[in-house]
Write a structure and sequence with these properties.
Pfam families (chains A, B): RecR_C, RecR_HhH, RecR_ZnF, Toprim_4
Strand content of chain A: 5-15%
Number of helices of chain A: 7
Largest interface: A-B, 63 and 63 residues
Oligomer: homodimer
InterPro entries (chains A, B): DNA_Rcmb_RecR, Rcmb_RecR, Rcmb_RecR_Znf, TOPRIM_dom, TOPRIM_RecR
Protein name (chains A, B): Recombination protein RecR
Order of helices and strands of chain A: HHHEEEHEHEHEH
Number of strands of chain A: 6
Helix content of chain A: 40-55%
Shape of chain A: globular
Largest sheet of chain A: 4 strands, parallel
Distance between the termini of chain A: 74 Å
GO molecular function (chains A, B): DNA binding; zinc ion binding
Keywords (chains A, B): DNA damage, DNA recombination, DNA repair, Metal-binding, Zinc, Zinc-finger
Chain lengths: 213, 213
């Protein structure tokens, strides 16, 4: 009996199969992790499994912005000190976390839950676009609120899918009179010109900004 | 509110904490895996968690060799076609799997479950050494079985801990008249001399073997 296609235990095989289904984890890495878990105290392993199960079973999504949340409305949307007339549109939960970590943004978010991608079969109806349009309409309809006080910022990836998604949303909200912007693109701070890709360098020249020393 | 020390959901934080306790998985990688699991169908996540739990709760260890097993005796020890008078002594379950994968060994194994390491506080009594000595004694006592028919092969790591462990076991079985050997060390097949470390190269000259074309 050799282990080429066989494991010493069916339980080990099942665990390796399950762990190797995670992105970026191969069969060898999964075996290493499984054997590691086998050496841990039983309660640690149970805690690990239950933390994963509870995340999947009990996490909620904010009814405003679709960010993951412990309650019906997330901590950002329920924070009255934030600017609720500025909505930053992002693809994923992780993007919200990245922008929050900069400490530079005081508006709210809208998590699309993906990006329009015909290749992967993801269309507008798979995303939270209609809820976003609804949110924008509601803000415009608010009394004493000029539509131009409302700003929608696209913080989507710079590839074809990201631009397609931004354009699709733009067409639906452009008639409402709100301001629409996109995050700045250019060379990173501290980047050498020498190592910049041509597309980024070209666009950063076209989109040059006033020099304010 | 920023996410520097805070997550949008306690459930997410718990899952990231649990996942990042795995070896080689940092906080960023754990977040990526947690958000991946969040997007999977609920039954897949449950299957993942239960495969991990069942591995830890239900796996057995062979009462002969301490290899992990679904039954009381592992598939190797219960295989009558194997040579039960040759025992290969290894540190871990993974070592057995590696040697089995070579297809070159027909004896049985003994899994120590670690290696003597004063720095990590692992002594002989933390390992399955006494069970190994018992197995060797039992084999020697078998009627019609010359002790020199029995061979113990050390397949342990080549560092100080590995050599200490081999020597400790050797002292306990050397009086029994069994043969004791160690896996061959030298340059790997296909290795260039140029890139071999000096210790390996030096030993491979001292331990040179007869040339048989």
């Amino acid at each position: 009996m050799a282990y080429k296609d066989k494991y010493p235990s069916v339980l080990l095989e099942d665990a390796v199969e399950a762990i190797s289904s995670l992105p970026g984890v191969g069969k060898k890495g999964a075996l290493r992790l499984a054997l590691h878990l086998l050496k841990q105290p039983q309660e640690n392993v149970h805690h690990f499994a239950s933390a994963v199960n509870r995340l999947r079973d009990e996490v909620k999504y904010c009814r405003e912005c679709s960010m993951i949340s412990d309650g019906d409305v997330c901590s950002i949307c329920s924070d009255r000190s934030r600017d609720h007339r500025t909505i930053c549109v992002v693809e994923s939960v992780r993007d919200v976390m990245s922008i929050e970590n900069t400490g530079q943004y005081r508006g709210v978010y809208h998590v699309l839950g993906g990006i329009i991608s015909p290749i992967e079969g993801i269309g507008p109806s798979d995303l939270t676009i209609s809820r976003l349009v609804e949110r924008v309409r509601d803000m415009v309809d608010l009394e004493g609120n000029a539509p131009s006080d409302v700003e929608i910022i696209f913080a989507l990836s710079g590839d074809v899918e990201g631009e397609t998604t931004a354009f699709y949303i733009y067409r639906q909200i452009s008639g409402l009179g709100v301001r629409v912007s996109s995050i700045a693109r250019g060379l990173g701070f501290g980047d050498d010109l020498e190592y910049a890709d041509e597309l980024t360098l070209g666009r950063s020249i076209v989109n040059r900004q006033e020099f304010r020393p």
